[in-house]
Amino acid sequence: MSKIPGKTETIENVEFPAFDPSKATEQVHAVVDQGLEQSKQAFSKLSSDAETTQRAFQSTFETAKTTGNEVSLKMLDALRTNAEAGFTHLEALVAVKSPSEFIELQTAFLRKQVEKSAEQAKGLQVVMMRASEDMSKPIRDAFEKALKERKAA
Fold first, then answer.
1. Residue 73 belongs to some domain of the structure
2. Domain of 142?
3. In this predicted structure, what is the pLDDT of residue 55?
4. For a tag site, which of 67, 92, 123, 152 has the least CB within 10 Å?
5. 24-71 pLDDT per residue, tens
6. Is 29 helix (H, G, I), strand (E, B) or coil?
7. Is the separation of the CB atoms in 135 and 67 below 8 Å?
8. Span 120-126, mean pLDDT?
9. How many domains does the chain have?
10. Is residue 42 situated within a structural domain?
11. pLDDT in tens, 66-122
């Protein structure tokens, strides 16, 4: 019979389980192995996600380059068209014989240029909208895929 200090009760026939170090070592190894396996799985998933993201960014950059070239060509075409129209108008102004003819020619030119500028702006807007959609598609697809995988998990 043993007494616990500070207590008045006694404990009789108390048995403590025997400590077996080999079982503890096996349990520690099992926990470490399990942690290692989970780490490998997490790394594999992270690596796969990183590769997917890298591919999406590469695709986005390639699309940006292509659409950037297309936008530049569209802008250059508009500038060339406007410059040609300006030179043609200057040639016409040189041949003007009266102030009323000058005003009539200038008014017609300005009206035509405003219409042409609106047309060019619409065309450029279409190209820019398509470029925006094309460039965001790979990232958007990768994000949606990742969301679906997270929801499934």
1. yes
2. 47-153
3. 84
4. 152
5. 788 888 888 888 888 888 888 878 778 888 888 888 888 888 888 888
6. helix
7. yes
8. 91
9. 1
10. no
11. 888 888 898 999 999 999 999 999 999 999 999 999 999 999 999 999 999 999 999
Q: Is residue 12 part of a domain?
A: no
- Give the dihedral sign, CA 104/107/112/115: negative
H or E, element range at 131: helix 99-152
- Contact yes or no for 139/56 (Cβ under 8 A): yes
Query: Nearest CA to 79 among 131, 128, 124?
Result: 124
SS3 for 75-108 is HHHHHHHHHHHHHHHHHHHHCCCCHHHHHHHHHH
Q: What's the pLDDT band for 5 if we cut at 50, 70, 90?
A: low
Phi and psi dihedrals of 116, rounded to 5? -65, -40
Q: CA 118 to CA 132: how far, in whole Å?
A: 21
DSSP string, 31-64: HHHHHHHHHHHHHHHHHHHHHHHHHHHHHHHHHH
Residue 85 and residue 113 in contact, taking contact as beta carbons nearer than 8 Å: yes
